[in-house]
Amino acid sequence: MAALAVGPVRLDGDARLRDRPNAGLIAGLRDAGVRIDDDGRGRAPFTVHGTGRVPGGAVTVDASESSQVVSGLLLAAARFDEGLDLRLSGGVPSMPHVDMTVTTLRGHGVDVVATERGWRVAPGPIAARDVVVEPDLSNAAPSSPPPWSPAAG
């Protein structure tokens, strides 16, 4: 999405983000016509030079390090001028993750077709929807035991 902005967008984060493999995603975006400076690291931090548009078209990626490479490209592909003909050069660690992405895109009116080597996403709008998302409340729990005890009554 940063490539659809106008101007440079720098992506960075904590040490965990900097450890995440992004070489496949960066290579795929470059093949789609996006200029990205990563100093050859294939990881954050990197700068996406947005021009307000992405040509798109045929792109081959190696997603063997992360299924998120595929999902990230698919999620943005409908906004690319030519859409995206995404082809895989290797395996995908989690097909259920990619299947969920495709199902979600279709639920928002995006034309996604499975092909022999990947997926084809037609250019077009992405419909907004009201969706109720169950919260993950596990992080809302207190980090230490409460000052009371059930035995104390």
Topology:
Blueprint lengths: L5 E6 L3 H5 L3 H9 L3 E3 L8 E6 L5 E5 L6 H10 L6 E5 L6 H13 L4 E3 L3 E4 L32
Parallel strand pairs: 4-5
Antiparallel strand pairs: 1-3, 2-3, 5-7, 6-7
Helix pairs in contact: 2-3, 3-4
Explain what you see.
This is Enolpyruvate transferase domain-containing protein. Keywords: Transferase. InterPro entries: Enolpyruvate_Tfrase_dom (IPR001986), Enolpyruvate_Tfrase_sf (IPR036968), RNA3'P_cycl/enolpyr_Trfase_a/b (IPR013792). Residues 4-141 form the Enolpyruvate transferase domain. It holds the Pfam family EPSP_synthase. The structure is a single chain. The chain has 153 residues and is α+β, with helices and mostly antiparallel strands. The chain has one domain: Alpha-beta prism (UDP-n-acetylglucosamine1-carboxyvinyl-transferase, Chain), CATH 3.65.10.10. Helices cover 24% and strands 21% of the residues. The protein contains four helices and seven strands, in the order E-H-H-E-E-E-H-E-H-E-E. The protein has helices at residues 15-19, 23-31, 68-77, 95-107; strands at 6-11, 35-37, 46-51, 57-61, 84-88, 112-114, 118-121. It has a four-stranded mixed beta sheet. A three-stranded antiparallel beta sheet has the order 1-3-2, with helices on one face. Strand 4, helix 3 and strand 5 (84-88) form a beta-alpha-beta unit. Helix 2 runs parallel beside helix 3 and helix 3 (68-77) packs parallel to helix 4 (95-107). The relative contact order is 0.14.
Task: Give the end-to-end Cα distance, rounded to a whole number of Å.
Answer: 54 Å
The CATH homologous superfamily name equals: Enolpyruvate transferase domain
Average residue pLDDT: 91
Annotation field: number of helices: 4
User: Class in CATH?
Assistant: Alpha Beta
Number of domains: 1
Q: Tally of extended strands?
A: 7
> What CATH architecture would you give?
Alpha-beta prism
